[in-house]
Amino acid sequence: MSDRIVSISAAETRPIRGAVLRPGQPAERLIYPDDNNALHLGAIIDDQLVAVASFYQQPIPDTTAQAWRIRGMATLPENRGNGLGRRLVEAGLKQAQRIQQGPAWCNARTTAAGYYQRLGFQQLGDTFDIPDIGPHVVMVLEVAD
Ligand SMILES: CC(C)(COP(=O)(O)OP(=O)(O)OC[C@H]1O[C@@H](n2cnc3c(N)ncnc32)[C@H](O)[C@@H]1OP(=O)(O)O)[C@@H](O)C(=O)NCCC(=O)NCCS
Question: Per DSSP, what are the bridge partners of residue 75?
Fold first, then answer.
């Protein structure tokens, strides 16, 4: 078995976004604002894309400083727990910091908050609801220079 982390296009993220994050939702909901200016990475195992993550230049809510927002973080169920999510975030933020330094953040589903915590993120503020998706919390990671 060979696995690797690679840059992919926005279009390539969408089947896994759809399957994992927005099952049954229309294709247009798999296109996120600014997808064309974002970094998109994928994990490939035996020539199959099995996990994706995207990185957008967007300040932390209620701030103006440069930061990187992670969206569309998804690993296919059968490939979870093997460190692919961690490798995607680490590789994406490494690439991102070469473009613009700044912290990383995301609106984490509360079910995934523990995952971001394992990666060093800390919760910022209270839980809030995103309609049709569920409870979320902002998670932030200060990235070292
Ligand atoms: C959350 C998700 C992306 C994790 O992907 P993954 O490839 O399984 O993650 P990893 O194997 O790299 O896990 C990294 C660490 O986080 C832990 N972890 C993974 N998912 C977790 C969760 N939901 N809660 C708590 N810890 C979790 C792992 O045990 C691992 O810990 P370790 O470093 O001590 O070994 C994946 O479960 C997923 O796609 N979930 C559904 C979609 C989702 O919720 N996406 C996030 C939306 S905000």
Answer: 51
